[in-house]
Amino acid sequence: MKSFKWPKHSILAIAIIATWLKTVIVYHTSFELDIENAMQELILFINPLSFILFAYGISLFFKTTKVRNRFLITVSMILAIVLYANVGFYRFYNDFITFAVLFQTSNFGDLGNSVVDIISFTDILYFTDVIVLILAIKFIPKVEGLSPVRIELRRAYFILSMAMVFLNLGLAETERPELLTRAFDRELLVKNIGTYNYHLYDIYVQSKSSAQRALADGSELVEVDNYVQANQAAVNEEMFGKYKGRNLILVQLESLQSFVINNEMNGEVVTPFLNSLTNNKDTYYFNDFYHQTGLGKTSDSEFIVENSLFGLGRGAVFFTHGGNTYNTMAEKLGENGYFTNVMHSNNSSFWNRNEIYESFNINRFYDVESYDVTDENSVNWGLKDIPFMEQSVDLMTEMQQPFYSKMITLTNHYPFTLEEEDIMIPEYNSNSGTLNRYFQTVRYLDESIKVLFDELKESGLYDNSIIVMYGDHYGISENHNKAMAMYLGKEEITAYDSALLQSVPLFIHVPGSGDGEVIEDASGQIDLRPTLLHLLGIETSNDMQLGADLFSKEHEDFVIFRDGRFVTNDLVYAGEVCYDRESGEDIGIEACQPYIDRSLVELEYSDEIINGDLLRFYDEETGNLLHDALDGEE
Ligand code: GP9
Ligand code: MN
User: Where is the active site (predicted)?
Assistant: First the structure.
């Protein structure tokens, strides 16, 4: 019998294939990743390779077979431990490990004795690849002439691994645009770039922010504090505490922009219910209100409203600074006897909500697990808004009052698809399917708000609540400018138009108040925290916040966007041009300059607070800087 001749680099090939296959099997057996199509399946299948090829490939640089093999065993062992640690963590938390969590031992508090319950003897299978590799090294005869590895071979090998990385990232980008810059969800990251790359990425993000945090000593706060104090808008005594003790129901309306309000699409009314609120005796309607979000989209909008600070210019603050100290609207309400909660039918780890809500001191998160979600009552991203409203009000009836519930809707989300039975108006007829369908999902969202109001009335909660509703961010991006121009009857959408299109509606509905009015001053999401706390009779004069009470006589019509654009009642600054708001004409930069300067300062202060985690040096009760901070000062 002619003996089988093992190819030269069999050991390396076996190591790669064993770890690759094991990882793919673990993906499928140990995590609940929901895979929606063949493309996602393919990405999941190839993503371990892009990292493994690199890691094992380093062995090619070692001179002797012995050292090479030792290196391979060590790497496979480390990778197996990393993967297994994630499996264990996932069994308990239904989530992947983050670098930050590893160093926050308090997170493992619950884990304690349960480690024994989590692991089992059969878990040895997670190390199958290491065992296979060791056996291969032991039993496969040594091949002569392997050392040192030819330089051309090494080159070819690393070109191949680079190609794998690009293939992986390219496919991931088509499946999930802006995956890395937006960095929203650990599950999405793992699904797209794989566990191992995910950890590298996480380490990079976390170490960058911890370095900034470590360098901060709080002395930076002195200047920020002076600015905040000097720019405070005095409370309006008539409005302060006017609706004290009411429940606060905040509804963050997914992707809802102002251009659909009181507007028609081919003769169809798009938002009949919201339109009726724009001139309702119990509703303050703000028709020149803007979102101020960046890449963090929904999560930025939550962040801005809770903290009255901006999100970050890069990435999503929910993800990068989930462990910071904050002084949120929820925390203040909690201190004033409110039961605070968020209602949103999605995985709790999406946007890292589960982590940051703890930092926000939110009492409870009603995530997808709290809802009855079936194939029939879901579409697109999950539970449809109408059943979401119905089930949420059911949950509210069980809550201790007063409560603060933040509801986050989902159906009016890109790609704006609906079930046939939920379509109430026809599609629009532009060249953009996205815009065409948008009107239909907005119409559905509007209907769900009507349902919310009806349900609240029926449950008896309505009269003792305030219902605040606002759009979280734009729904129609600039990629659809041509279609938007057609809809708005304009020749083209300019930078000036785009800025004004960032307007989202804001309604503050106070049942039975008879106080309704339309407020036309320019304002933004950053103003909501002080406004709402003041209406409920809660002071904010010591708070590190950049927004101003919308009812204050000193509220200024000046809305800063995260990217440095701004809007006032008279000016629009966009694309580095200063426009007269009324005429849309370029009026020269001088008119805008003072505002440009101020917007840079405010954005910078906000970033400093977040990057340095400065609120840990601040006593929110007294408004004093804590000792550490003062040590740095003379
Ligand atoms: C997901 C939802 C959508 O839970 O809030 O986030 P978005 O993509 O709009 O930022
Ligand atoms: Mn959103």
Answer: 298
Bigger pLDDT: 237 vs 315:
237
| 547 and 449 co-located in one domain | yes
Round to whole Å and give the CA distance between 383 and 402: 27
| Residue 594: cis peptide before it, omega within 30 degrees of 0 | no
- Domain-located, residue 523: yes
Last residue of a domain, one of 538, 556, 574: 556
Question: Residue 37's pLDDT is what?
Answer: 87
Q: Is residue 599 part of a domain?
A: no
| Same domain (yes/no): 202, 243 | no
Residue bearing tokens 């029939």: 376
Higher pLDDT, 351 or 109: 351
Residue 518 is part of a domain; what is its CATH number? Answer: 3.40.720.10
CA distance 179 to 164: 18
What is the pLDDT averaged over residues 122-143? 93
Considering only CA atoms, which of 469, 541, 557, 632 is closest in space to residue 230?
541
Q: Are residues 159 and 290 in the same domain?
A: no
* pLDDT for 421: 97
The pLDDT score that the predictor gives to residue 143 is: 75
What percent of the chain is predicted at pLDDT more than 70?
93
For the beta carbon of residue 620, count every other beta carbon within 10 angstroms: 17
Q: What is the 526 CA–ligand 2 centroid distance (Å)?
A: 16
Which two three-digit tokens encode residue 106? 């308090």
Are residue 263 and residue 182 in the same domain, yes or no?
A: no
d(CA 403, CA 400): 7
Which ligand lies nearest the alpha carbon of 291?
2
Q: Which of 527, 556, 585 is the last residue of a domain?
A: 556
> Hey, what are 83's tokens?
């993967």
Cα-Cα-Cα-Cα torsion 260, 261, 267, 272, nearest 10 degrees, comes to: 130
**Ligand 1: distance of its center to the CA of 299 in Å?**
7
Indicate the residue type of 351.
W
pLDDT of 633 over the 70 cut: no
- Bridge pairing between strands 283-286 and 517-519: parallel
Query: Which residues does ligand 1 sit against, CB inside 6 Å?
Result: 297-298, 344, 346, 350-351, 408, 413
How many Å apart are CA 339 and CA 177, to the nearest integer? Answer: 37
- Give residue-wise pLDDT tens across range 378-403: 999 899 999 999 999 999 999 999 99
Catalytic positions, written as ranges: 298
What is the structure's pLDDT at 138? 94
Containing domain of residue 25, as a range? Answer: 10-212
Nearest residue (by CA) to ligand 1, atom 9, is: 298
Looking at the structure, tell me whether residues 292 and 182 fall in a common domain.
Answer: no
Distance of alpha carbon 573 from alpha carbon 593, whole angstroms = 10
User: Whole-angstrom Cα distance, residue 634 to residue 631?
Assistant: 7
Atom number in ligand 1 closest to CA 408: 5
Concatenate the DSSP letters of all residues of 565-604 into one string.
Answer: -EEESSEEEETTEEEETTT--B--GGGTHHHHHHHHHHHH
Based on the fold, state whether residues 153 and 278 are members of the same structural domain: no
- Considering the domain architecture, whether residues 67 and 189 belong to the same structural domain is answered as yes
Of 365, 388, 367, 393, nearest to 377 by C-alpha is: 388
The string of pLDDT tens digits covering residues 510-547 is 999 999 999 999 999 999 999 999 999 999 999 999 99
Residue 120: its H or E element: none
341 bridge partner residues: 364, 405
* pLDDT band, residue 178 (cuts 50/70/90): low
Q: What is the pLDDT of residues 587-621, one digit of tens each?
A: 999 999 999 999 999 999 999 999 999 999 999 88
How far away, in angstroms, is 73 Cα from ligand 2 center? 45
What is the domain count for the chain?
Answer: 2
